[in-house]
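thread: overnight batch results

M.L. [08:02]
morning all. the overnight job finished for the chain we discussed friday. pasting input first so we're all looking at the same thing
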Amino acid sequence: MSLAQEEARVREANQRFYQAVENLSLDDLEAVWLPSPACRCVHPGWPPVEGWEAIRESWSRIFESTNDLEIVLDQVTVHIEGAVAWLNCLARVSSAAESRIDTALLCSSNLFILHDGEWRLVLHHASQLPDPMDSPQTDLIQ
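M.L. [08:03]
and the structure it wrote out:
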């Protein structure tokens, strides 16, 4: 398979990950993550979560307190070295929970490994960025 075809497969796996999150679906997440104790997940503002079972539980907690999620990806880059691929992107996440709606801009890194012919997620790390839309306009002085 060509590098371009593998990159497309990694992008597809990444899209399935974010679609599972948008759908609040633990079953769909299980189809993307490698069920390994070596997996890690870092949610914004959380300590690292290690191992698929603990990661699954962390997503379950997020989904329980969320009514609706929308994720828009931007600036997606993919790099592949052998059976390892990493994808970096910006994600604008809008979530509705109880009586409030929140929007956050996240910088995410997702690490995939090629396992039994499929790209499986082994690391998701997301950090919140300041939203440029919330920044006051300033004039640059030169």
